[in-house]
Input
Amino acid sequence: MKSAWQVRAGRQGERDQEALAEGLAIVGWGGVPALGRFDDKEALKTGLREHYPQRSASVIGNWAGQLWRFYREMSEGDLVVMPLKNVRQFAIGEVTGSYHYRPDATPDCRHARPVRWLRTGIDPGEFGPDLRGSLGSLLTVCRLSRHEAARRIGDIAAGRPDPGWRHASANLDPDATRADLWEAVETGAAPVKLTVRNLLSLWAYRRRTATSLVTVQSELAEHGVTTKPPFTSARMDAVVELVPLADEPGTAGSELDPAEVEALDDLPAKWMVRAVLPDDPTIEAVTAGKPLATAVTLMLAKNYSQLAVTDEDGFPVGAVSWESIGKARLTNPEPTLRDATTQVRVIDFDDELFAQIDEIYRRGYVFVRGEDRRKLIGIVTANDLARQFGTLARPFSLLEEAELRIRRHTRPCLPEEVIEKATPKWASNPTFGSYVRMLEPPERFELLNWPLDHETFLDLLTKAKNIRNDLMHFSGEEVPEDDLLAIEGFCATIKAVDQS
Output
């Protein structure tokens, strides 16, 4: 079956024009010789360590995985998506041959695959929100497999609209409108089922904020329905069912009493455990009573640091780790799985994550229960937390840098009374909204002496302001990919003209 891949052409898109002109997908790692000399991934790791001795084992492992996918796992006929960084667009092509090494190319353009480019200049908006999220990966080479990505990317490459993705258990068409939703509710032929993401999109929302939650919940209630499980806490791609509200509090037979619906006021301040779980959370486990060798083999094969131990019904009884195995062997040369099993905290998928941070960093991980409050669906490690914090912090960091650069440049260029008048009384410095008001008159913008189009710059600044306002409604969910691209573009524009 055809696969789809994202292959980035450099951090700043420095290889994309050569890739398009030469009909190639190109990756970097210029210090690495031809990959054909490496028989397996371990040999490739050894080669990478020789060329990058200062890099950690985890970085070497990550790089080896990406290069191996590019060298051996990518196949003829697969689709390749390449971000075109400088124009904020994408290109889609089809792999037409095997990997080859180009010794005469510049160092960062030597590892290549032949590609027939099918479409270029593709706007990010042509990809559905979930596909744009997948294309947000920072890896140079990654497989795009979520939500039938290959089939949908093939449609986009052929110039057709992204058909979108519908969960197998959902029954509302992804292109449905709110009118279609209410018609389906009123008809009542079958319970309406759709993903949380699709539910929010009916109101043109992409994230759960105070405004979106109140708006959707209120309008659902006006039509006499709510969702089960609550869309306020379920995962974005989880399916929820529209169920009737009770006619009166406590009415027998109702699916959900309005008094039991979680208050919305505090929701944006919560960061649920689900924020760091994968979209399709699963967990590997070993059944209590199995030989310890079974756990050891699984941990080696899967490169796990720890493994859940469950009973026959899949309910957690503890965990085994390399540390617990080592301690068990100190007192028993031939320990059993029971000897090496330790207690571990098990939390619910909709628990508040901040309350678990100390335990995660102290022990290194916690296990997560699903909606049934019994069976395990995932694990959250200290590395997961660090990665998620980095993902969430990036847009804030970019916007702060842009704001500091604008402030530094405008203060000596604009009259002080203009800046004071535009700055809110409650703020010690101008906000993005202040700069929109300050720079709206063309004659003021000209004082900055920036070689930029005034109207286009104001559009970028206004969008940055709106995204910043949306980010203030903290929900713990990742910023939509097109918003992140807009922030990156705005920050790059400011950096290019602010040379001070």
Remarks:
- Residues 436 and 462 are 7 Å apart (CA to CA).
- The two ends are 53 Å apart (CA to CA).
